[in-house]
Write a structure and sequence with these properties.
Length: 147
């Protein structure tokens, strides 16, 4: 919702600025040569500002892309570590059942593994939720993702 309001405000400001500039130029008592000179200067100034906005947007986009890449690689690493842990536990349980060391039933082992996985999944979920909250807060403030 706030994106739409910001977008509408920006478009309205831009259109209002253009209409105001055109009416000021057309109603000002200047000679044609002075008017063309001023138009040329204003066009050059607008080009420079647009170039500055473009470079800022490109820089911010690159910064956000880098941030997203870092966060997704951290998440992938966490998921990989957790799945390796789970795989090791399942392998351990299976080998102990095969060797007859454990007298637990398959259902008991499954319950134990699922409860361990649930705790680890909750930890991962909490970490991801916190990262999303930080990302959302930084976009609301208009700050960079690293601040």
């Amino acid at each position: 919702m706030s994106d739409m309001n910001t977008k509408d405000f920006f478009i309205g400001t831009l259109i209002g600025g253009i209409v105001g500039a055109c009416s000021a130029l057309l109603l000002a008592p200047k000679s044609g040569k002075e008017l063309r000179s001023e138009l040329s200067e204003n066009a050059q100034s607008a080009r420079e500002r647009t170039s500055g906005f473009t470079s800022d947007a490109y820089e911010k986009g690159s910064e956000w892309a880098s941030y997203a890449k870092d966060k997704s690689s951290e998440l992938a690493k966490n998921v990989s570590e957790q799945s390796n842990k789970l795989y090791g536990r399942v392998k351990e349980a299976a080998s102990s059942v095969r060797q007859g060391k454990e007298e637990k039933t398959a259902d008991e082992l499954a319950d134990e593994l699922s409860s361990d996985l649930g705790v680890e999944a909750d930890e991962i979920s909490t970490d991801v939720e916190e990262d999303v909250r930080q990302l959302h807060a930084s976009t609301e403030e208009g700050a960079s993702p690293t601040s």
